[in-house]
Amino acid sequence: MRVFKFGGASVKNAPAIINLGSLLEPYRSDRLFVVVSAMDKTTNRLEVVVKNLLERNHTAFENSIQEIQSFHEGILQELPLPDLSRLSHEIQLLFEGLRKRYHDPISEHFGFEYDQRIDRSYSLNPFASTIGLWGQARALTNQHILDFDKPWNPIVDVDSFGFPLSDTVLWNRLIASNQSMFDKNLRASLGRGPSDFIQIDDLNPDQLKLSYFSADELLNAGNSFV
After folding, report:
1. Most buried by CB count within 10 Å: which residue of 1, 2, 17, 44?
2. Phi, psi at residue 170, to the nearest 5°?
3. Which residues of the chain have pLDDT under 50?
4. Cβ atoms within 10 A of the Cβ of 30, count?
5. Phi and psi of 16, rounded to 5°?
6. Cβ proximity of 22 and 87 under 8 Å
7. What is the DSSP string of 38-96?
8. At what angle are helices 132-140 and 181-190 packed, to 10 degrees?
9. Run of H or E residues at 136
10. Burial, 136: exposed, middle or buried (Cβ in 10 Å; 0-12, 13-18, 19+)?
11. What pLDDT does 110 receive?
12. How far is CA 154 from CA 150, 168, 207, in A?
């Protein structure tokens, strides 16, 4: 994965956005994570919106929002896109929601407002200090084949006369009934049999999916994966 971070000046107008696209073009076949700051001086304009909101100046509040909306819509119209209607509609919805904010209660504590939110995240770091999803995947893989089919059915390499060729005796893995849902789905995706031992740390992260886990496996008895 490639991660790109662009500041507000990189998207200050239509030509800048087009230039940004040309910078990303050589990497379009890669997995990209692009972080873009607010467009040119938008953060400053939003500070004016908040000021007008706290001062309960409805006319100034509406005008400051309209200034930001017109700025973004103007840039959108200059972009060489085949269909602008969907993006234009999304912009309108965004600013309609912002205008409705004027009628919501405002905190009186030093002008700050607290956004109640729920943060959800998970870890795929195989070296993390906490278990993470990678550690959970490691624990759930192969757990049904950790024992051997002993003492029955030994595998002995013998010659044509039936004499052992070595002093090593092998056993098949005993397939137990406690196979995890993650293990089952992983084997299906890799085309591996139920008794094949899978080295989870040899896999590419792209070969693992969150959907392989069952709900109970993700719940992890209420313990956090982060």
Report:
1. 17
2. -110, 155
3. 110, 129, 226
4. 9
5. -65, -40
6. no
7. PSTTHHHHHHHHHHHHHTT-HHHHHHHHHHHHHHHHHHHHHS--S--HHHHHHHHHHHH
8. 90
9. helix 132-140
10. buried
11. 44
12. 7, 10, 34
pLDDT tens, 38-91?
Answer: 998 899 999 999 899 988 999 999 999 999 999 999 999 999 988 888 889 999
Positive or negative, the Cα torsion across 77, 83, 89, 91?
Answer: negative
What CA–CA distance (Å, rounded) separates 111 from 50?
9
Tens-place pLDDT, residues 52-64: 998 899 999 999 9
Query: Nearest Cα to 149, choosing from 169, 165, 168?
Result: 169
**Paired strand residues for 6:** 36
Q: Quote the CA–CA distance of 204 and 111 in Å, as a whole number.
A: 48
pLDDT at position 201: 86
DSSP single-letter state for residue 162: S
Average pLDDT, the chain: 83
Three-state DSSP at 200 gives helix
Three-point CA angle 141, 190, 185, nearest 5°: 55
Q: How far apart are CA 163 and CA 27, in angstroms?
A: 62
Size (the chain), residues: 226
Helix (H) / strand (E) element for 24: namely: helix 14-24
Closest CA to 102 of 169, 159, 150, 57: 57
